[in-house]
Amino acid sequence: MQIFRRFLQQEDLNFLLTNRIPRAALTRFVGWFSQIRHPLLCRISIAAWQLFTDLDLSDARKQKFDSLHDCFTRELKPGARLVDPDPGLLTSPSDAIVGACGRVEGRQVFQAKGFPYSIQDLFGATQDTSAFQDGVFVTLRLTSAMYHRFHAPHDCVVEHVTHISGDCWNVNPIALARVERLFCRNERAVLRTRLDSGQQIALVPVAAILVASLRLHFLDLLLHRRYRGANEIPCQAKCTKGEEMGWFQHGSTILVFAPKGFELCAGISEGTRIKMGQALLALPR
Predict the structure, then answer these.
(1) CA 282, 283, 285: angle at the middle one, nearest 5?
(2) CB neighbours of 229 closer than 8 A, spacing ≥ 6?
(3) Could you tell me which of 236, 91, 211, 88 has the C-alpha nearest to residue 150?
(4) What average pLDDT score do residues 216-239 get?
(5) CA angle, residues 252, 16, 54, in degrees to nearest 5
(6) Cα–Cα distance measured from residue 133 to residue 108, given in angstroms and rounded to the nearest whole number
(7) Would you state the torsion angle of the CA atoms of residues 106, 277, 111, 72, taken in this order, to the nearest 10 degrees?
C-alpha cells in the first residue's frame, strides 16, 4: 500500500489524475455519493479512505457515521481543541498545513514560488482591498483527512460575505506550482470581519475538486457551484473567538489576511502543521 501511495504521489501522475478530468462532474458525483445514508456502504467507504490517507477519527464526537458526508463534517469531542485565550493573538480557524505565508507586497501575494496573484483578483472587483495593502497573509491547507470545520480566529463581527463562483481545481502543492492564479479561479467566499479594535480581518475559504460547497452558520446558508442567490451578502454576525463559523463539505483551503502591523507567530512557516485554536498571528502591539 505504501508503494501504491508513493506511485500516486508522483507529481505528473497526481496532477493528471486530480485535474485533467471532468472536475465539475466528478465533484457533483462525490457530493451525491457522500450523502448516501447506508451503514455498510459508509463503513466500506471510510475503510477505503483510510487506506490512502492518515484519517484519524479518535477525536471525533461519535464513532459511527450515517454517511461519508457525516464523517467529512464530523464534530470533535469536547476539549479536543484548545483555543489560545490571549487577546493579542489571532488563532488558526482550522486544522491545517501552512502553505505560502508572509508579507503582502503592496497588494500582491504568492500561492507558490514564482506564482503571484493580486488580492483584488481573489476578493473580487466589488471589494476594497486597501486595508490589507502591505499586510500579512497565511495560506491554510486542509487535507481530506482533517477536521473540516472552521472557527472564528478572534472576537469579531462578520460584516460582509462575497460569494464568487468558479472552477474546482485541486489546491494541493503540485497544482499550486503549475496553475497560475489558482485561488482566483476556484469557487470561493470572502468573509470580511472586524475586530473590536476596529481592525479588519478577511477569511477566504476556497473550494477544490470534490469539495465545492461551504456551510455558513451565521447566515444559515450553503454556498456551492449551483448557488443562485445573492453574491453580495451584508451582515452583522457577532462571533466569539473559537466559535464555529461553518464547515467545508470535504477539505480545501482558507486564506487569512490581516492589515499591516500584524506578525506571524513563532513557528508559523510553510509546512507547519497547526490545529484549530493555536496561535497564528500576533496583533500590533
Answers:
(1) 110
(2) 163, 221
(3) 91
(4) 83
(5) 45
(6) 8
(7) -140
Range of 45-54, 128-137, 170-179 with top mean pLDDT: 128-137
Find where cell 462578520 sits.
Answer: 158
Q: What is the pLDDT of residues 57-70, one digit of tens each?
A: 999 999 888 887 88
160 Cβ contact partners less than 8 Å away, ≥ 6 residues apart: 190, 191, 192, 232, 233, 234, 235
pLDDT of residue 212 exceeding 80, the answer is: no
Active site members: 95, 151, 252
Residue 157 corresponds to which amino acid? V
Using 50, 70 and 90 to split pLDDT, how confident is the model at 241?
Answer: very high
The confidence score (pLDDT) of residue 20 equals 52
For the chain, the three-class secondary structure string (H helix, E strand, C coil) is CHHHHHHHCCHHHHHHHHHCCCHHHHHHHHHHHHCCCCHHHHHHHHHHHHHHCCCCCCCECCCCCCCHHHHHCCCECCCCCCCCCCCCEEECCCCEEEEEEEECECCEEEEECCEEEEHHHHHCCCCCCHHHCCCEEEEEECCCCCCCEEECCCCEEEEEEEEECCECCCCCHHHHCCCCCHHHHECEEEEEEEECCCCEEEEEEECECCECEEEEHHHCEEEECCCCCCCEEEEEEEECCCCEEEEECCCCEEEEEECECEEECCCCCCCCEECCCCEEEECCC
Mean pLDDT for the chain?
A: 86
Between CA 170 and CA 149 the distance in angstroms is 19
Burial zone of 106 (CB within 10 Å; 0-12 exposed, 13-18 middle, 19+ buried): exposed
